């Protein structure tokens, strides 16, 4: 009852005109920032830190939270419409959302994403209110072997269900892991795959990789085939979800938060892993698995709901432990320290008004996000009516601007074009792009957790399967690899028996 009373007091503060203005401004800014590839919410909040120093802390954090949730949706908008993820967490949205847009269902894909963000964020913020202390306590007990096992699960789960063959999926994963190796070895300082270029010592930013493989690779692929196909404009489609769309999306909307929130709450979590796992889950549970890869709406609804819920999970760990699990959480932690406030177990006791007003403003921001973006879905979808030569020329321009904005180094543009060429070749030879992206995102983290686990255990490899969670995850990995093979053998055996019976 104390929690409910504190939350009601937070709503009383959040519904003041000034705080409502901060929430609306944050949502609008976040959506605009998410649309531009390379300019993520972490960079936006970092740039606004000096500007908001004179603000009231509560208003500033309401603004930052609005930017966070808004950017998650904005990134999925360009991911769906233009196959250009604005954020790494929006990569999965392009897999099914972009084919939907090309077939004239862009408005439906955007609506599914908007409602998914609302439902996922709503359940995630409720989880923040109710379960934050419990999730944070569990997160403290999770060790390096558990993190590594979860990341290996993400590798295997994604590569085993995408592409025309598992071999191509693992080949794409190997490409991503190789790109993730670029830079200095975190332990020895040895340069790896930098080819003598000092600017590559810090590695290649995942935004550059995502934009290169998706946007540049897609633009080059379209340019290579533009003269062979008619460049007819893509229809916008109806603005609302049909009854069949709602029947197929309500379960993914509800499943996504239960994948996204825990992963957002654990260190080294973030929105990338749960969106991948949500996509795999929806593909396996769907009544229409044959539509995946060509525009299955479940593949948009589930991952987007998981991404939004993971944002709430990230804030849960940051507020209750003072432990940032993503770049935006790290910047917000710096903002708290700028105001002389230390997030952690005592934050709810020392700054209850700020915390509960911030949590209440998240509910308000989600409603504003849905109210602003759901009616705009057909308008956003009209971007697809632009003739393809102009459209992809614009995509190349903004992709280069976004890549240059990451660090301001001209070498980033060269890297972008090289990775774009790799993306073009992957399309040419049928390699799925998603395993490469997950390899880049999780590869360095998996290496770090592997080394950390072995260091703690003095090189004993048995430590990798020394905890109940890691054992359970590896058993699940074995099941993912073995069950489809066994199922095919059983089906093949039954078919041979039928042939023998018919022959006799």
UniProtKB/TrEMBL annotation:
InterPro entries: DUF112_TM. The chain crosses the membrane at residues 20-49, 61-82, 109-135, 147-164, 170-188, 200-223, 312-333, 354-377, 389-406, 461-486. PANTHER family: TRICARBOXYLIC TRANSPORT PROTEIN. It comes from Pseudonocardia humida. Keywords: Membrane, Transmembrane, Transmembrane helix. Residues 20-438 form the DUF112 domain. Pfam families: TctA. This is Tripartite tricarboxylate transporter permease. It comes from the Bacteria.
